[in-house]
Amino acid sequence: SFNKEWQINKKPERSELWEELKQVLELGGTGYPKNSNQFTSYWFPYVFQMFPDEDEYDAFEYSVSIAKNVNVYAKPKLDSTIISHLDYNIIKPVYDYHVFEVYNDGLDWLKIQLPSGERGYVESKYIRSAIDYRASFNKENGIWKMDAFIAGD
Question: pTM of the full predicted structure?
Fold first, then answer.
């Protein structure tokens, strides 16, 4: 089913798997269990392992800025007023289903709510959900192998 989902059998060089996997690995990972000197597995990206427990932030409602000094704009345009900056913050995406907005700058924007309650826009490439695609690696017979590539809960 993995090969079918990612279309590995037909044209593996065109599979979207490689871009997703590249993004996951470039963000870096963390060892598991968290409070151990002897990790039994590694999870990539770090966002999944390091996200706070559900009592504080629901991973289905909140996301993380994955870079330092990310501009938050008043409007979804690069020449708009910068209202704030994000530095690896947990933020809340805002989905106004009743509002249809078209952006013609070629960028993919995400509307967010800052902890202050103010709303703004961020280029979506700087935001990642903890439940987005992630990979797990475990050591078997001295060899690290990827044993999971999943998204969701």
Answer: 0.81
